[in-house]
Amino acid sequence: MPKTLHIKTYGCQMNVYDSERIAEVLAPLGYAPGETAEAADMVILNTCHIREKAAEKVYSELGRLRIAQEAKARRGERMIIAVTGCVAQAEGEEVLKRAPFVDMVFGPQTYHRLPQMVAEATRATGHVLDTDFPEESKFDALPEARTVDGAAAFLAVQEGCDKFCTYCVVPYTRGAEYSRPAARVLDEARRLVEAGAREITLLGQNVNSYHGEGPGGGAWTLARLIRAVAELDGVERIRYTTSYPADLDADLIAAHRDVDKLMPYLHLPIQSGSNRVLDAMNRKHTTDDYKRLVDQLRAARPDLALSSDFIVGFPGETDTDFEDTLKLVADVTFIQAYSFKYSARPGTPAAMMDFQVDEAVKAARLARLQDLLNTQTLAFNRSMVGRTLAVLLDRPGKKPGQMAGRSPYMQAVVVEAPAERINTIQAVTVTSGGPNSLLGRIDGAIERACA
Ligand code: 5AD
Ligand code: SF4
């Protein structure tokens, strides 16, 4: 009897990537993906700790799972419950104390050891806790075969962070920066293409700080890696995320000019438009540095569309600081952005800072910022009407007869199309643009992605 595995993924794309790899590690043990958690033989919560009561949400989800686990036990069946991701890393043993029915807690760096952990857990020798930062890299120990779900795939090239922004848990939960050797990345890219990928997003918490070992020795930059991935047959589109502005070098800017397959969309978090706040955040760039960078990128690739992250209500942020953020957004223009209220993360320097901002003030600032950002997104989406874009259709749409995909600028695009067009790049003429997506009509297939 095949066993079923249900993975619930929270948070960033790195977690999505990790969940796929976890499923691949467990496949040889007989675990196949299952739709519902309640019926599964193993449920894994891949958690995120970046903001807001993340741990509490995990505990309430665990409470629900416990009921399903007990119902299964009454039928003489077993449900293994595991917690991984950044909450597991941050909370460690605390998870097992608060939720003793959890069988395994493991950090994002140890899931290559899952077969061992599962063996220990199924022998019911007690709980398994593995939140080390091991010497060996998980990437060296993961199975080589890759599966892809749709034509757009993620590929982790770098992990961890040494930047220590004062609000952020990532350097503690994901550990120090590590770049995979270029040859390993290229091998995985080839395997993704064989498995059906046409678009590859290179992932890293600080992806543009990539400095993996090159095949002939010496370190490769991200730009060099992108150029090499672009050479691979079958790769049609390349993206990368997430970038740290101060590490974005001339080489990468040049890649945006030279590499056609590199999509004209860049997620480049700035966090705040106030230099005082950026300094308190320990960001190593000013607003002028950021604007200069954007000018250089747009000179290299005039249609480059930008997205960003913002935090409002960082400790000490004044009305004037916040107005500076609005001004920056008005100046730079983002086609899309994520904005958050500052949330104090235990153990980070900012959590101990004076002048924490009142929740109501944070909420009011967030609403104003999001209004402005939404206006920019809508204006950009509307400006697409009448244009023909190369859309990679990678999933069925919500309504029957529809397919959905992404434009070069990462916009969600919905078209009427027969199901066999899945995983193809189509020329789509945009007929309308809304706040969250574009509607369009297929005008023909195009072989190479172009904006
Ligand atoms: N509070 C609010 N937002 C945060 N982010 C990271 N840490 C925090 C925090 N403590 C946001 C940043 C980052 C994104 C992934 O999450 O904007 O770029
Ligand atoms: Fe966190 Fe800053 Fe590192 Fe991004 S660069 S992961 S915000 S510490």
Task: Explain the overall architecture.
The longest helix is centred in the C-terminal third of the chain and has 25 residues, at 359-383. Helix 9 runs parallel beside helix 10 and helix 13 (319-332) packs parallel to helix 14 (359-383). The chain folds into four domains: 3-130, Rossmann fold (3-Layer(aba) Sandwich); 144-263, Transcription Regulator spoIIAA; 268-383, Transcription Regulator spoIIAA, CATH 3.30.750.200; 388-449, Nucleic acid-binding proteins (OB fold (Dihydrolipoamide Acetyltransferase, E2P), Beta Barrel), CATH 2.40.50. It has 14 helices and 19 strands. The protein has a six-stranded parallel β-sheet with strand order 2-1-3-4-5-6, sandwiched between helices. A five-stranded mixed β-barrel has the order 15-16-17-19-18. Strand 16 and strand 17 (412-416) form a beta hairpin. It is 35% helix and 22% strand. With 451 residues, the chain is of the alpha/beta class. Residues 447-451 have low confidence and may be disordered. Bound molecules: 5'-deoxyadenosine (5AD) and iron/sulfur cluster.
Compact overview of the structure:
The chain has 451 residues and is α/β, with parallel strands linked by helices. Helices cover 35% and strands 22% of the residues. A 6-stranded parallel sheet has the order 2-1-3-4-5-6, sandwiched between helices. Strands 15-16-17-19-18 form a 5-stranded mixed barrel.
Total domains, how many?
4
* Superfamily (CATH H level) name of the largest domain: Methylthiotransferase, N-terminal domain
Q: The CATH topology of the largest domain, please?
A: Rossmann fold
CATH secondary-structure class of the largest domain: Alpha Beta
Helix-residue proportion? 25-40%
Mean pLDDT: 94
Count of individual helical segments: 14
Q: What general form does the structure show?
A: globular
Q: Identify the quaternary structure here.
A: single chain
Low-confidence stretches: 447-451
The count of DSSP E runs of length 2 or more, i.e. the number of strands, is 19
Percentage of residues in DSSP E strands = 15-25%
Describe the sheet with the most strands: 6 strands, parallel
Radius of gyration: 22 Å
CATH architecture name of the largest domain:
3-Layer(aba) Sandwich
Q: What structural class results from the helix and strand content?
A: alpha/beta
Bound molecules: 5'-deoxyadenosine, iron/sulfur cluster
- Spatial order of strands in the largest sheet: 2-1-3-4-5-6
